[in-house]
Amino acid sequence: MRILLAVRNRAFFFFSMVMPMIFLFGAVVLFGRGAQGWVGYILGAILTMTVMGSFWGLSVQLVTFREQGILRRFRLAPVGAGPMLSSSILSNYVLAIPTVVIEMIVCRFAFHMTSWGNLWAIFLLVTFGSAAFSSFGLIVASVTNTMQETQMINNLIWTGFLFLSGATVPLAVFPGWIQRFALFMPATYLATGLEAATTNLAGPSEVFIDVVALALGLLVSFEISRQLFRWEAETKVPARAKLWVLAALVPFLAFGAYANATGTQLMRIQREFKTLQSGSANRMMPRGALPQQ
Amino acid sequence: MTEPVIQVENLQKSYGAVEALRGVSFAVEQGEVFGLLGPNGAGKTTTVEILEGMRPPDRGVARVCGLEPDSHSERFKERIGAVLQSTALPDKIRVREAIELFANFYPNPADTGDLLRRFQLEEKKNAFYRHLSGGQKQRLALAIALVNRPEVVFMDEPTAGLDPQVRREIYDIIEELKREKKTILLTTHYIEEAERLCDRVAIVDHGRVIAMGTPRELKQRSAGTTRIEVRLARPAADGTLGRLESVASSREFDGSYVLHSTHAPRTIVALVKQLEAESNELQSLEMFSPSLEDVFIELTGRRLRE
Predict the structure, then answer these.
(1) Nearest CA of chain B to the CA of A69: how many Å?
(2) From CA B264, how far away is CA A213, in angstroms rounded?
(3) Which of A55, A286, B37, B242 could form a disulfide with A137 if both were Cys (CB 3.0 to 4.6 A apart)?
(4) CB pairs under 8 A between A and B
């Protein structure tokens, strides 16, 4: 049902198809012209935005359904919160795929990207990224009581994710302390992983940590949102329950601490950025082969 | 003797300091249409929502088809159907899709085409939900409530806010269900709805059942009395109408006076004399045989929709 409703919604079409394309064309024209390696990098950033968009659409729709009393009707049917939420995540994934594919095709053929990037790594990151960010959206929907609250929190999260993860400005150009802080954010794992995969600088084994971080984030967030799920607008979330949301951050706090301690993630980000600057990225390199400095 | 399909004993529920239910008890037999009649805020919706498994009671027993209502129990939900006070569906879902969507949740659903025909929605099967009229939306809500062939159907004010024509259409559908021997619990604040559709009625006020029986039994409480509604040119002096011959009770509603008389002709003669003495004039006078409204007024001193 969610897929059907989304397809019939002009706003969905605009935000999930038109807007990413505008960003893609704008970014390639501004930053990628004449630098083929950068087209792959820009594709990674645009794919990140497309995948992260999952959390926005799902949270807004769930809150709308709850405010309008639509969820209340579903409550009378023999369907629990778990199946309902997991089907929402799945449909979000299905809805993201066409945009991802179109963005890749446009980059490959319209912007002459020299290779598809590492498709396995892209597949894993898009799949787990979409599911994880959908789950974050479910948490936002669970802890907010009104659409205004939802929009406000979404804007805050979205802005942070967008500008501090490497999805818009390459993380490598930020001061060290911001880079270290970014390692505690789920979006960083998606953005840096995808940017490495689309530029063919990383295969599945190089983005393993990123995929695991997103997968753990998905599991924890899904369970929390299932616990906090409300069918009716009049059922308010107790303030104490909102503390559960902090639990969703635990996997990323752990991965952030680990990545900061080992330094490997930041080294990889720096190395990939330098490779891009030197113009050697996005040539058909053997899968998983990272250029040595 | 078979167990009642719906059994409610001493049901109590509070929302903060507000006591919504203060010990509601009743039982509904197989194939019976049972009505909860009462004004807004009487506790009807809370009772139904507890029976649908959407709210837990604070105290008391509620059983439906021998099961405790539980919103987490698939077995329970498969046996009930429900029309909420206001059913909402996504604006851009089509009528057929909505029925099919809910049909997918159940193991043995009714045929979508049959439901569309039965609820006169065939012409609208491809229409978006947002383009339906109030009556069509309510017919769709009824179709969805019956999609799982439920043993018990809960209807919370199924005709509230609908125009009289649409209301009559919904009555016809409920009467058809009644002929099929479905067990139905409906809440209403429309007297004519309760009188027309219900085998038995419980009158609910301030969270309590204050009277229960068949509409005929309840009306017999007011048997032997006639309701006389009079409108006067000027307000009557305080209490004078209540002291007229054969008047059992009198009340003022919206500028008219309602008298319950045990002997209407004597009361009318006395009324005319009284008005002459006060130099007042009679603008209109109507007489009615007792209705459930009279029973409600007798029991509570208020009209149902006050």
Answers:
(1) 6
(2) 85
(3) A55
(4) 48
- Cβ-nearest to B90 among A70, A78, A79: A70
pLDDT tens profile B152-161? 999 999 888 8
According to the per-residue pLDDT averaged within each range, which of A8-17, A227-236, B76-85, B215-224 is highest?
B76-85
| Domain boundary pick from B203, B219, B235 | B219
Test A65 with B86 for CB contact under 8 angstroms.
Answer: no
Question: B282 and B161 share a domain?
Answer: no
CA distance A16 to A149: 22
Instruction: Measure CA B10 to chain center.
Output: 20
Q: How many domains does chain A have?
A: 1
Minimal-distance CA residue of chain B relative to A78: B74
Q: Do B186 and B273 sit in the same domain of this protein?
A: no
| A140 vs A147: CA distance, rounded Å | 11
Over residues B20-42, mean pLDDT: 92
Question: Strand B6-15 vs strand B282-288: parallel, antiparallel, or unpaired?
Answer: unpaired
| Residue B229, domain extent | 224-289
Domain boundary among B219, B245, B270: B219
Residue A287 maps to a domain? no
Tell which of B84, B85, B128 to mutate to test the A interface (max A CBs under 10 Å): B84
Instruction: Based on the fold, state whether residues B215 and B237 are members of the same structural domain.
Output: no
The interface pTM score, or ipTM, of the predicted complex is: 0.80
Q: Per-residue pLDDT tens for B67-83? A: 998 767 888 999 999 99
State pTM to two decimals: 0.80
Given an 8 Å threshold on Cβ–Cβ distance, is B84 in contact with A4? Answer: no
Please report whether residue A6 resides in a domain.
yes
Residues sharing a CB contact under 8 Å with residue B148, sequence separation 6 or more, in sequence order: B78, B81, B102, B103, B105, B106, B108, B109, B110
Kindly report the nearest CA distance between residue A221 and chain B, in angstroms. Answer: 22
A70 touches chain B (CB under 8 A): yes
pLDDT (tens digit, 9 = 90+) per residue, A142-197?
888 888 988 998 898 888 888 888 888 888 888 889 989 998 988 999 998 898 88
Which helix (H) or strand (E) segment holds residue B281: the answer is none
